[in-house]
Every structure is written in C-alpha cells, then in structure tokens.
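General statements about sequence and structure are easier to judge against a single worked case. No coordinates are needed to read the tokens, only the vocabulary itself. The sequence in question and its structure tokens are set out directly beneath this paragraph.
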Amino acid sequence: MSGYINKSARDDWKTPRWLYEQLNAEFEFDFDPCPPNPQFDGLAVSWGARNFVNPPYGRPISDWLKKALHERQIGNLSVFLIPSRTDTGWWHDYVMPHEVRFLRGRLKFDDGANPAPFASAVVVIRP
C-alpha cells in the first residue's frame, strides 16, 4: 500500500462559514491572504494586523507558516485553519511552538454534505 492515508484529492478547501464567523468574532480579522482568487499571491504581499489564513493544503503549507512567522516579527497575528498533520516536519517546526486548537470531528468544507477526509486544527500565531 502506498500513499498517505489522510491525503486528499484537493488542496483548496473553503472555510465553513460558522467556523470563520466564530473565529472572526474572537479575533476581528482585517485581512485574508488566501482569497478564492487564483491571480492573487498572498505570499508576495504584506499582511494585515489580524489575518485569517486557510492556505492551500499540501506541501505549500510550510511556506504560508513561514510567512506568518515573518508577519509575527512585525507585530501581526495570524490564525490558520489547516489539516492536523502532527507527523510532519512542518507541524513540528512551525506549529508546535504556537497555540493549537484541535477541532472535534471532521469539518464539512464548501458547505458539503460529507466531511473532509482529514482532521483539522486552528493555529494561532501571536505577535
């Protein structure tokens, strides 16, 4: 058997509205570097003071987390919605030092009927 048990056929997952609203009520986001616009490169721009980040899942997640660490150094907060991949190097290197909120069950993205094939977590990277 080859492959990765939690691997998904997609890397772009639309945040469930209820979860975004809950997090926004707590953090009052002012920027989303990952809007559903393929021409926008959130890694190439400066972020806001309070960022909500639901990055493309897969190998590029580490690039987004590194960008958040840079933003942290200049005083910006970033809240990530990411797959809970506790066995990866990027999880240990970039997530573990920060606040992690594991989500119970599996999220239903895109207002879909079926849950995602992976567990999710919210990671808060504070300045």
Residues 29-34+49-111 form one domain. Residues 49 and 76 are 4 Å apart (CA to CA).
